[in-house]
Amino acid sequence: MKLIYSVLIATCCSSCLLLTASCSGSKSKGVGEVHATGVFTTDSVGYTDSVVVGKASGICSVSVMYPDGKESVLVDSVRGWIGAQLNVRDKKFNTGEDLVRFAVKQQLDSTKAELDAIMKDSPDYESQYDNRWNIGPMYESEKVLTYYSNSYCYMGGAHGGTLFKAVTFKKDNGESIGWNMFKPSDMDAVKALVKTAVGKDYFKAENDSLFEECLLVKLNDFPLPAMPPVMVKEGVLFSYQQYEIAPYAAGMPHCVIPYPVLAPYFSGVAADIMPKSVDASTVQD
């Protein structure tokens, strides 16, 4: 099914980012909203298959909004990024369907090889491996496109793991932007804003002591997330992975800081792609 993002889409998309209640018991605000404006054309493709080895099995499902427009630096960049999320690199495919079928087969081949090795020593082993990917556009403006990948992996044990990744591309040249949207000299100030926002907006912590109780790190050592920031409708999204700064039960701590708040810290790289709500005079090299 081909889709053209010609109107504003605001869909509550829980598959974008799995969230749980905060450590204090109050639910955190979700960012799993897809906002797209523009004409980036995609083709919705998906494929699911499974394998059985003795009493164990594995399933793999991939769903992708695959760029189907004319060849361009942006389309090439997005397609390359999608392939990398699916662990498929340095291969060309005629269609998105070819890519997802290859990715599913590749994953199931790996699952079968692992289960075969386990069965040699434990022939009665029982488990159901589960690997899933959901990839698509998260935000689009006239100048940028943000794509997300939400993946889930279960290989036995108490629970599986979810990995959220996202990237913002500049439409004019297909280049990705991340931490370079901020001036290096202002990164400490950006980190302070992120720490405050995560504590108040995600964990709903009333003070630093309660905030620290939610974390696996000390507040004095609070880091910026490993995943580079991305642009979304409301501002810049900063997202941590499971276990990166907090226990599994805390989900994926994140925050969205409005563009005007971050404007003083934007670099020249970001100056020409920020929404009109940002005062260009505050963005400097």
Describe the model.
- There is one protein chain.
- The protein has helices at 73-85, 96-121, 187-202, 208-213, 259-262, 268-271, and strands spanning 2-4, 9-12, 33-36, 41-53, 56-67, 128-140, 144-154, 161-170, 176-177, 230-231, 235-239, 254-258.
- With 285 residues, it is of the alpha+beta class.
- Strand 6 and strand 7 form a beta hairpin.
- The longest helix is centred in the middle third of the chain and has 26 residues, at 96-121.
- Mean pLDDT is 87; it is low at 1-22 and 24-37.
Short description:
By secondary structure, the protein is α+β, with helices and mostly antiparallel strands. It has helices spanning 73-85, 96-121, 187-202, 208-213, 259-262, 268-271; strands spanning 2-4, 9-12, 33-36, 41-53, 56-67, 128-140, 144-154, 161-170, 176-177, 230-231, 235-239, 254-258. It contains six helices and twelve strands.
Shape: flat
Output mean pLDDT. Answer: 87
Uncertain segments are: 1-22, 24-37
Give the % helix.
10-25%
Structural class: alpha+beta
Largest sheet: 9 strands, mixed
Q: How far is the N terminus from the C terminus?
A: 43 Å
Note the run of SSEs as H and E: EEEEEHHEEEEHHEEEHH
The total beta strand count reads 12
Count of helical segments? 6
Round the Cα radius of gyration to an integer and report it: 20 Å
Strand content: 25-35%
